[in-house]
Amino acid sequence: LATSIVVAKELTKDEQKVLMQLKQQSMQSDLSYQIIESLTTEVGNRLMGTAGDEKSIIWAVDKMKALGFDKVWTEEVTSTQWLRGEAKAQIIAPYPHDMVAIALGGSVGTGEQGIQADVAHFNTLADLKAAKPGSITGKIAFVSYRMERHIDGHGYGKAVGTRVQGASIAAEKGAIALIMRSVGTDDNRTAHTGVMRYSEGINKIPAAALSNPDADLLVNVLKRGKPVSVFLKLTSEIREDVVIKSANVIGEITGSEKPEEIVAIGAHLDSWDVGTGALDDGLGIGMVMAAAHHIGQLPTAPKRTIRVILFAAEEVGLLGAKEYVKVHDKNMSNHVIGAEWDFGLGRIYKMKSGVGAQSLNAMREFAQYIAPLGVALAPENNARAQSDMGALSDKGMPSVSFSPDGTQYFDYHHTENDTLDKVNPDDLKQNTAVYTMFAYFAAMADVDFRQ
Amino acid sequence: LATSIVVAKELTKDEQKVLMQLKQQSMQSDLSYQIIESLTTEVGNRLMGTAGDEKSIIWAVDKMKALGFDKVWTEEVTSTQWLRGEAKAQIIAPYPHDMVAIALGGSVGTGEQGIQADVAHFNTLADLKAAKPGSITGKIAFVSYRMERHIDGHGYGKAVGTRVQGASIAAEKGAIALIMRSVGTDDNRTAHTGVMRYSEGINKIPAAALSNPDADLLVNVLKRGKPVSVFLKLTSEIREDVVIKSANVIGEITGSEKPEEIVAIGAHLDSWDVGTGALDDGLGIGMVMAAAHHIGQLPTAPKRTIRVILFAAEEVGLLGAKEYVKVHDKNMSNHVIGAEWDFGLGRIYKMKSGVGAQSLNAMREFAQYIAPLGVALAPENNARAQSDMGALSDKGMPSVSFSPDGTQYFDYHHTENDTLDKVNPDDLKQNTAVYTMFAYFAAMADVDFRQ
Ligand SMILES: [Zn+2]
Ligand SMILES: [Zn+2]
Ligand SMILES: [Zn+2]
Ligand SMILES: [Zn+2]
After folding, report:
1. Where are the beta strands (DSSP E) in B164-275?
2. Distance, CA A412 to ligand 1 centroid (Å)?
3. How many domains does chain B have?
4. What's the CATH number where A18 sits?
């Protein structure tokens, strides 16, 4: 009474052989590393609207052409300007100390004269929320919550709320500024930036992150039970009147049989204006460009088109992704499946699909191909693509999300320490192999991933 | 024909019991941690001649008194001033990048306008030495040698030559400045300072260290084979006309039977003007003060006097130690034995003695007491005490050197990252137990360690 089901494979024997060749090639090539080395050495950091951003667009177009992409083009993305300026934070009393601080992205400044006030300390954002309106009037709110370290990075979600909404919540309670422990797992005197938002109708107050050791120090000073006075100067500026321009950079390996059907692999081209953006998102850029190149070098083009999308302005609010889904709205149904890399710096250990029920067998087949690389198929089938590409998932694009080891990622994320030396060439080869194999499989499998 | 030798123990059974009590107490107490927390929170960094140095002297006197030392006093140490100013380093061409740099201690400045020149790259100090005089005239010399990581820190000795003598050697070859990879094993955008010296009769040129990732970047830029232009600004100043004052801080637990005989345990009170000097040398300060306190709390005072010496101005050239041996020259023979802590941040795994041949049995006996803490007795008997205390060894004081795990130490050494969070409370307990047991044993053993 045993039932044996033989499922037909999507890839022919020959295609499977090509897939294994692509795997071997990605595991032997250091192309993705060389791409990241080139970007970080010749461009460096690249916040939207900076000279680095402009250079990175030229760099990406040139690199795609050099790598033999069939089509390369840019699509403009605009926004208004934010200027970081400088940040200075000091404990004035009872024990003077300089602290390492960085403005949160989008924060208003303090003015050149800075502000000095007593500190109101909260262990968590929930504690700050629970404070009575007016209870910390004239004070600098300080949230000392420390991000937890986890392989899947879920400590980030628990910590990032203070960064995004903390300033407006503190302002509601009467605070004149927010300082917070960085959203990061390291112990360096290096603060983590990242985007923040002001709620409508609430006084905009300056917001900065302290490095972990400085947050520890401030907590220890506060433990003495005396009033603690802090000086904060941020010369950040929101310039709503200045339009800045960037661009999504898109390149394709054209499909041979169904060129209109698109397998999208992406990363974001911009970075914060600290470090060289080697991890965030240099890693993604390296692996998706290398993946398309490896496939483009095959004697026969893949059936579907491989589209590499390097999104603009992810860090400041996914602006490139929003623009992309607007511009390509009519063509969204031709995006047959997509995946992005914008997280972690270790080996991929898990893959999650987000496809139609009938496509699950194809996903299982693909999972078998990458299983020897240490990648397990998650039981859920509700994946949204990472980061920018999630905007395409939201428009109905079938998606895959690959989970790399994120244990170390938030040691470096959005800091000056996001540099090339943090890239592990061996892990990157595995990552590149997975993305290459995914793109090839998706371009060859005769499956409608929406079904 | 087997010979059995029964060696009499130096400690009586009762004294051994006290030793075990002291061990247990040090392993349970967090006093040494609390001392470091207090110093780093209430004082912070403390380069000779700064406000922090002045505060640290008051802090140390107060702390020794609070810990029940019998006598506490200071001995003045003077020097001339060096001002760090600010440091700015940038790659100007072909790929502009900001670099993280720090002035070496004692360097002259560049003037407010800074200097810009092409880079002459050397992999090692030996390569720089081998360059022909005049061969790099008008250039900025860059030595990219990377320090090796070892448990005993011996990579430091191989790397530090560039820091100490590099500027004068570069100047001999015609260079107008020296930039070097930091003497450090980390991958942080945090540069390592430390003292440098100018050779007599050679042009004094500015000298700065780059963080490891910035040195990597500069190497990668240089690999492109185009001329690389760097801008360097140091506003450092040597002020030979300004006399600055500091002090050795000395405290004692007076001996009950031979109060004139001194067991010296030491550390240095000063630090570089970066970080909070939690490791260098907060660790040493915490453990020697706690050791003396634990012994001071015994119902019966030890036979010999325990003298805690917190040396001034170690970082800028062992000035406190030099002053100490000058002032105490006549009394040096009463310094029966000594040990300092000024290295590493892990567990002690080795002890090396430097005593008279007849005292070796006593050293072996002591080694047996600390063996359960994981400390092995090294076969050599030629120890010089660490750092400052080495100046007393050189004057004939018998010495012990305890080797802690130094694997991580040079990640933090002389950087902004030398902060309290790097102190491992458990390792520190072991360290404190060893120093406490050493001081008690040395104060009780009826041995002339010179013999
Ligand atoms: Zn990102
Ligand atoms: Zn990011
Ligand atoms: Zn030291
Ligand atoms: Zn030092």
Report:
1. 177-181, 207-210, 229-234, 237-253, 258-268
2. 12
3. 2
4. 3.40.630.10
